[in-house]
């Protein structure tokens, strides 16, 4: 029984999330979510990108290389897998 639960969580199906691609530094400031120039500056300074939903939930992104700069500050749909508060992106659509 425990083995089944462990297997289930590891093999969880992909899901979709909608939100904004923002740098972690500004994710808590709703007015900054669509400021692509600011996101780009903060990312260049070392702040990782995150996905922030309309309700303010912030999700870390494990595979940062999946997020291209043209999506910074844009509302996107992300397909991926979630573990805790960190997602692994399989697909990102603007």
Structure commentary:
- The protein has 94 residues and is of the alpha+beta class.
- 19% of the residues lie in helices and 36% in strands.
- The protein has two helices and five strands.
- It has helices at 2-10, 36-44; strands at 15-23, 49-52, 58-61, 75-83, 86-93.
- A five-stranded mixed beta barrel has the order 1-2-3-5-4.
- Strand 4 (75-83) and strand 5 (86-93) form a beta hairpin.
- The N and C termini lie far apart (41 Å).
- The model is unreliable at 1-11 (pLDDT under 50).
Label the structural class.
alpha+beta
Q: How many strands?
A: 5
Apparent shape: globular
Strand content: 35-45%
Overall mean pLDDT:
90
Low-confidence stretches: 1-11
Q: Major sheet: size, sense and barrel closure?
A: 5 strands, mixed, barrel
Give the radius of gyration: 14 Å
In DSSP terms, counting alpha (H) and pi (I) runs of 4 or more, how many helices?
2
Rounded to the nearest angstrom, the distance between the terminal CA atoms is 41 Å
Report the order of strands and helices: HEHEEEE
Question: In what order do the strands lie side by side in the largest sheet?
Answer: 1-2-3-5-4
Give the proportion of residues in helices.
Answer: 10-25%
What's the layout of helices and strands?
Layout lengths: L1 H9 L4 E9 L12 H9 L4 E4 L5 E4 L13 E9 L2 E8 L1
Parallel strand pairs: 3-5
Antiparallel strand pairs: 1-2, 1-4, 2-3, 4-5
Which descriptors would you attach to this protein?
alpha+beta; 94 residues; five-stranded mixed beta barrel
